[in-house]
């Protein structure tokens, strides 16, 4: 019996374990997981999905899961009511399935048994698939941070970024927008791009083709740091599963300091309302507010 798991459902929904012989994790936000796109059609008995909040991203995951299920296989999907849960039943019904819906712990939960025939699956997969985004002229995918635009914070950092030198890292690289700017400096000898999102990493590999670059699918918070880099650039995340979590940005700041050698510099941009100054002043020797515009603030922090 083959079971897939997508994301980390709350324990109240009794998610299956992912140890030896357990469910196969397929979330793009969990490094090392299996890509749901690669699961053969009609090969799976059960799927549990903790549905993502974005409409295109969610419908894409639901369609891939239904495609992977055997006829008669079971799809169990849940989401917070205000993060897509209230739309789940309608979205699933649109695929031509019968849906059983319940409410629990501020979530909506839908159970589906895969029928012989589905509708709209190919369209949902196409709408959520990787593509070159018009205007960006770069590869991206729904679900990636600011997937179809240049984020205003990243734009502010790019505007003020000096010609960097030596070895550096882009923490939370997304599809590679900031890395492209950093690499304009011929004095950059190497640049690591790191992101938690497999989709962002795959897009960055297509967008940033430079022999100085290495790209990693990893969690910045748990990566090892040797204190040997000259610079860090970062627009840290501050949402986890659609909910604001300021600890993410604070962890990125601490990791940036750990990665840098003495005298190394971090260029970090953040939404104006986020209270990162105390963390920056603790982790770095000198901190300067470079710009405060458009709801964002940009810091230069020297170790």
TrEMBL record:
This is Class I SAM-dependent methyltransferase. The keyword rRNA-binding does not apply. Residues 137-299 form the Methyltransferase small domain. Keywords: Cytoplasm, Methyltransferase, rRNA processing, S-adenosyl-L-methionine, Transferase. One of its GO terms (biological process) is rRNA processing. It comes from Brevundimonas mediterranea. Pfam families: MTS. It comes from the Bacteria. CDD domains: AdoMet_MTases (cd02440). One of its GO terms (molecular function) is S-adenosylmethionine-dependent methyltransferase activity.
